[in-house]
Model the fold of this input.
Amino acid sequence: MREESPKSSETIGLDLRVLPAPRTHYHSKLSCTENKSRGRENHLESGRAGLEDDEEFVDILEERRRSSDLSHAFRTFSPQPYGGGTSCSSGDLSKAVLDSQYLRYVTEQIATETGSSVEAVREEACVIMEEMSQNLQLGFIRLMGFTLSKVFKRVFTSIFVNMEGLNTLQQAIQDSPVILMPNHRSYVDFLVISYLLFTYDIPVPVIAAGIRNYRRSLLFFSILLLRCKALAGMKMVGEILRRSGAFFIRRAIGSDKLYWAVLSEYVKTIVRKGFAPVEFYVEGFRSRTLKSLTPRLGMMHMVLEPYFKSEVYDVTLVPISISYDRVLEESLLAHELLGVPKPKESTTGLLKASSVLQENYGSMHVNFGRPVSVRQLCQGKMDRCQYNLIPRDLPQTPTPEVQSCVSWLAHLIVRTQEEGSLTSPWSLMACLLLQTPTAVLTEAGLLWQQLTEKTLWLRKLALTFGARLNWPGHVPDSDVMSSSMAIHRSTVQRKAGRVYLVQEEEPARKHLISPEEAVVRTAVPVLMLASYRNQTLHIFVRPALLVMAIHVTKSTQRGECWKRYVSNLLRDARNWSTVSILFADELFSFFCFLQGVFSSEFIFIPGESSQDFEEACFLLKKCGALCFSQQEVTVSETEAGVEVLSFLQALLQPFIDSYQVIFRYLYEEVHVISEKDFIPAVRSLATKLILSGKT
Done:
């Protein structure tokens, strides 16, 4: 639950008659010049708001298709490094870590605690350092540049990047240590960031990668090489990635004190020395559902500690939003969610998996957000004087104040990533397809005309809500949607003017498939649709939560127990026209409660419930769904207003259903179950409920 207690609209200073337009969060925190292309207020005011601006984004593959990949790889590469940094090699960096006073102290402490010799513990630290460290070399960066040029031209039609963001990044890297923080949706993510920086003469980053993710990326990159007729084994590709800047972190560190010490000192030394920009995924994992994950704070603490201890004047964070028309691993992600084991990482299995690269994956957009200063963001958030009380070389446990500040920063970055992402036409279409009964999509089909009309309606609503859309303005709308449908023909297909769900093909077998197997066959394309639907949630989630709060408030007006009503929320359609007057303070109270319930599901910046509530009110008022007096809210009875409210209600329906299934399982199952078996058991219950028609 959120720490912020619900207050009345009067207490939070909200006059519902004059609602302010929402602002992009990090814009309001900085004093530097406003970026007109990214401010949400500009999106709301522009007639072409949110649509792709051809002048802002440049297709880097256009030049690659016209010139030699070899000349691109071997051209002069002379990036401008951090001006305050110390020049050193990868070997010097590792030596500095092992010789640091901090690691010496921890080594002696562990030796005393375990009864081992200091030499034995230090030898173990050297092994960890050798396993972990990168070995960045220009020759291998060139090799990666050559290979990826061929790979990306084969896989994507376009890779768009915002040049203004790259130019700003180039300057920021010279001024202070820079932390690159992209969202994580595909194994392609870290490859494309390094490729772009190499292409535009910007220092290539060192990249924090979980060893498990590294193996997945290794498998994926090996597939790419094989498809391009390049000969490379897994070991060779692994060395290429290491020498291109990747350093590897064990996934399960647990309470391994020595490993934590080596890792944190390695990361902090890179930041202190300004060796290279550091790239890591604040979400921690690749998102299997393509929606933002709650940030993990371990690496965030490490990269910020040199600033907290005044070892560097400032640290610059750069949020990066990577958006795909189609994710290469979409089918793999759906099967992983259904509990299907991942493919084994081996060279012999690559050719079978490489068929995925014969498909069309459309375009990718990489949006480099404006660099943000930790020094400016932390003003008034924490007192760094506490770090003066203990020598810098000694371990320090972060205080609650520091932990709160780091959490706030991490959530702010993820929220900024969301605001910088571009929503594809297919994501809007997926929202609407998922609000169509599955039986209609698998049997009768949805009228194509109906889908296109609703998609255009949803596009207008998304623009009203300040979304950034990848919707070409020079192409007829019907062609845009037809093209999106063609890219995702493995999920849906159009026949005789209707849209049908494509069920997964099964090999020939002697016996009929079971009902459970039939559910899985249908679940795969549905989950793929849900993944693309999830890429729109940041646009609609706050207004949708307010719609849910209205439902709860209505139930209390009818004398129902609101907590019991929340557990059955959205199960039955409600008649919006029966609403009379609702009070803003009561709505805000339920809005905060729902944010707490979904705090692990969606991204909410800690301490900003009142701003989120104001934003939701403003957007629903702007689209004509709600009307406001000073502290009262009235639901619109117009057809347009009801349509918006019904859509937002249905958008969150699957999340409510999922929570209900879990609550039902926990209530009905009285025996103890391990965490490992919990998800398969809930999945089994959900299958039974689907077959019984109860969900």
Notes: Residues 184 and 285 are 7 Å apart (CA to CA). The chain has a mean pLDDT of 83. The first helix runs from residue 40 to 45.
